[in-house]
Amino acid sequence: MTDIAKITLGDTTVENPVLKGTVGPDVVDIRKFYAQTGAFTYDPGFTSTASCESQITYIDGDEGVLLHRGYAIGDLAEHSSFMETCYLLLNGELPTGDELGKFTHTITRHTMVHEQLSTFFRGFRRDAHPMALMCGIVGALSAFYHDSTEIHDPHQRMIASHRLIAKMPTIAAMAYKYSVGQPFVYPRNDLSYTGNFLRMTFGVPAEEYEIVPAVERALDRIFILHADHEQNASTSTVRLAGSSGANPFACIAAGIACLWGPAHGGANEAALNMLREIGRPERIPEYLARAKDKDDPFRLMGFGHRVYKNYDPRATVMQKTVREVFDALKVNDPVFEVALQLEEMALNDPYFIEKKLFPNVDFYSGVILSAIGFPTTMFTVLFALARTVGWVAQWNEMISDPAQKIGRPRQLYTGPAHRPFVPVDQR
Ligand code: CMC
């Protein structure tokens, strides 16, 4: 028997079915609530609202659990590769060796971008933020790949998904090259997804680029950690944009725009800038005091999460990865020591304990990316590169869902009621 949640409003009692997921909280289905009561529900920021049904990613924020298609993020980070995780997110199951080989081959064969796209880059200022380039260039893909924009054709949807996953590293590397005034480097099909990206970013035509295996592995793992994260702001943006029937390239560009904000993907850039500003462990108390001061807008970047009220499981893997990269590159950046001490002091501070504020994925990622050689402005670009698979998997799922409707939230209107128009000479 279906559970019912009764809600009484005035004289009307509405019986709302309670939906049950595989795991996680029950969901009260209020779709008929407005029709039966004439009232809307109010939930700015969607703190209590499920916007869709999904089978891709599950998060238990209280326990610090993150599963993709049922597999724990820690297991994927340790045993899987980014390509395999992409296959899993898109198709629902881990691939066999043969399936993985074919999938990797397909992605590799889509890494080049239309040559005309390079002239697009040249329209931007060299000092533009690379995320500004990403928003523009990814949106522009819809002007180049007309044969994969028919969203009701599953085959075209899959080609668009493969193209986006494959071309994102090429575009991201081009955005970097453009900002430093170096020539674009074409993809190479004999390299791994991540190795190819490193070469396109840091290689120059004058000499062969040497891929450091530990760095390749660490970056691949960072991509796994960012691949999907349920109905976060940018994914919800992609779904909302896609719900109107917009083409996939335009939808992903919308996701990139949302991701750019410092409360979302931009936090990794902000976290490293903050750690560098702190500079020395002695200055940590000053910054902790600012973070706790209600009158100061400063927040501890890389700390806190809408969903995790426990240690973000991705942060655990990140912290381990910092050490691996530092060892491989023989780096000793004092910023890591500041990060470790800041984490320890915050985790023992009553303010952070009471509000359940823990390090999130962005707290350590900037430290690693900086050691590899990426400037801070590229951090969010890397996040976008990795999250593209999550965005396309969620977009595909939404388009295939028979219950899918255009997303159209309602509002609590508090502006003026109807009033007569006064001509300008009488105001
Ligand atoms: N430093 C200090 N205080 C904080 C912090 C922080 N980083 N995060 C939350 N708080 C306080 C906040 O002031 C509020 O206090 P009070 O209840 O007294 O008003 C309380 O904790 C709850 O905060 P909230 O803003 O209502 O929580 P939220 O769920 O809306 O925000 C968040 C989540 C991630 C936007 C927020 O924690 C934040 O701004 N963190 C810093 C930015 C950051 O690291 N973002 C990356 C998120 S993970 C990557 C991603 O998903 O993109």
From TrEMBL:
An annotated GO cellular component: cytoplasm
Keyword Cytoplasm part of the UniProt annotation: no
Membrane-spanning intervals of the chain: 363-386
Gene3D superfamilies: 2.20.28.60, Citrate Synthase, domain 1, Cytochrome P450-Terp, domain 2
Gene Ontology molecular function: citrate synthase activity
UniProt-listed SUPFAM superfamilies: Citrate synthase
Signal peptide extent: none
Name used for this protein in its record: Citrate synthase
Species annotation: Sphingopyxis lindanitolerans
